[in-house]
Amino acid sequence: MTLRYILKRLGQGILIIFFLSIISFLIINAAPGDPTVAIYGGKADRLTNSERARIVKNYGLDRPVMERYIKWSGQMIKGDMGISYIEGRSVSEILKEKIPNTMVLFINSILLISLISMILGLKAGFNEGSIWDKLLSTLSIVFYSIPPFWLALIFILVFSVYTGWLPSSGNMSIGGEGSVLDVLKHAILPIAVIVITHVGAYSRFIQEKVKEEDKSYYAMVARANGVLEKKIRKGITKNAVVPFINYLGITIPTFFSGSVMIETVFSWPGLGMLTVKAANSRDYPLLMGAIFITGVLVVLCMIVTDIIEIIVNPHLRK
């Protein structure tokens, strides 16, 4: 059952990626813009009509959209996503450089959000009506209401401009070799913004699930039969974690969509910033590659959360 379920989810993921590639390809190709401007910039005005036509033909842009999609998807399966108009390099090579940077923010943010949410949510949920319960209920709304863009600017102002404690942009120091400590130092501010603006909703989810499970029939029966409170809370925690993992998996796309803004503000060289750069410069091969790879990462992360949910919840293995 477990293997069949994973294969089913994998098949669904492939279908999602397939439809995403079609929709994004059609939208991008329908967007206005002259590829010669993207390639030559201000010098494009000096090109003759015949030179423009030759450039369009060389890039295959004179062919029907579906023919271009079939050719692009065939090359993509082989790992060839074309050549970037602006950088003149393979899109695949550029993406290989950017993916690890985005994953540094994503993985660390997810781990911290999960850990903090579990601690706060369980503490408040098991102490309904206490100061912890009321405080978390209030703070979760406050944190969730904070605009990430505004918080990012405040953090840059306080921790970079005024105090100089932390770097405000990039993922390594100028002239640095990109050591682990250097990268993590640059990642502190963007990760902090992501965690603070997300942890409220996730901790509140755990808090309410614990309250719900604590009032459930099985918990009342267990207490009536004299089962130790420690064992009851262990069961409640496990039953609250399963839907939390599912909720985390469902909301994973929001992390990647939010990374566009976070990476742009902090000049973090990841997929989000690359997508903005490609869109602004009308670099369609690079934009398509960035969107496609982001979709693949989202699907893979959702499959991983499904596997974790199966491990935690034995009922799904049947």
TrEMBL record:
Domain of life per record: Bacteria
GO biological process: transmembrane transport
This protein's UniProt keywords: Cell membrane, Membrane, Transmembrane, Transmembrane helix, Transport
Record organism: Clostridium botulinum (strain Okra / Type B1)
Family: Belongs to the binding-protein-dependent transport system permease family.
Principal location listed in the UniProt entry: membrane
Chain ranges passing through the membrane: 12-31, 99-120, 141-163, 183-202, 240-266, 286-312
CC terms in the record's Gene Ontology section: plasma membrane
Pfam families hit by this protein: BPD_transp_1, BPD_transp_1_N
Subcellular location: Cell membrane
Membrane topology: Multi-pass membrane protein
Protein known as: Peptide/opine/nickel uptake ABC transporter, PepT family, permease protein
Database matches in CDD domains: TM_PBP2 (cd06261)
Domain ABC transmembrane type-1 residue range list: 99-309
